[in-house]
Amino acid sequence: ELLSRLRGKLQTLWEERELVLWEAQECAQRGRELEATVRGLCKPNEFERYMMFIGDLEKVVSLLLCLSSRLARVQNAMRRIDGNTDAEEKRSLSERHKLLSRQREDAKDLKENLDRRERVVSGILAKYLTEQQLQDYQRFVQVKTSLLIEQKDLEEQIKFFEEQLENLETSIP
Questions:
Q1: Domain coordinates of the chain in residue numbers?
Q2: Do the Cβ atoms of 42 and 50 come closer than 8 Å?
Q3: What's the rounded mean pLDDT across residues 72-90?
Q4: pLDDT digits 0-9 by tens, 101-139
Q5: CA distances from 95 to 8, 74, 100, 105 (A)
Q6: Which GO cellular component terms, listed alphabetically, does the Swiss-Prot or TrEMBL entry include (predicted)?
Q7: Could you give the CA distance from residue 169 to residue 13 in angstroms, rounded to a whole number?
Q8: How big is the CA angle at 115 (ends 19 and 48), to the nearest 5 degrees?
């Protein structure tokens, strides 16, 4: 029964992932349309700023998500430390935790810088775009970010349930 439930949960997650991937493709299409509009209205250097921001948005959000995920796994491993855990493993986990914490703080600084750049880009676009187009741009940035987060979350859940299913299948004779 547990195997059946895990398989059902995985099926649901795979379907959700397909939906999110479809939404991401739709968002990418809106992004291409917005890019064409911005290219046609802005000065080349302003368009370049816009493109750099959009490219960095995905990179910085993905970096933050990845580091947060890795840090959470290390923290979970640290919570499982007991009297039987050898000193080398404890030290290794502690060092990885410190490193990942520093890297995540650096990534948060990058995100703050990116937020400032977003305000600059919005100011530039406000000179050229209609109110509706500006709202479409803001919605695009918001949706792009939320889809990245949702994709990462689904991938983590799928990985977790696949591991659980595999462990359960190998433990049953």
A1: 1-171
A2: yes
A3: 88
A4: 999 999 999 999 999 999 999 999 999 999 999 999 999
A5: 38, 10, 9, 15
A6: adherens junction; apical junction complex; apical plasma membrane; cortical actin cytoskeleton
A7: 19
A8: 85
Residue-wise burial string across 1-10, b where 16 or more C-beta atoms lie within 10 A, e elsewhere = eeeeebeebb
**Confidence band of 84 (pLDDT split at 50, 70, 90):** confident
**Residue pointed to by tokens 């816009």:** 50
User: Hey, what amino acid is at 83?
Assistant: G
Tens of pLDDT, residue by residue over 25-34, are 999 999 999 9
Residue 115 CA, distance from chain mean position: 16
* d(C-alpha 95, C-alpha 75), whole Å: 12
Q: What is the largest CA-CA distance in the chain?
A: 68
Q: What confidence tier does 172 reach under pLDDT thresholds 50, 70, 90?
A: confident
Give, in degrees to the nearest 5, the angle at Cα 23 between 150 and 65: 25
Single-letter amino acid, residue 59: K
Quote the CA–CA distance of 9 and 161 in Å, as a whole number: 8
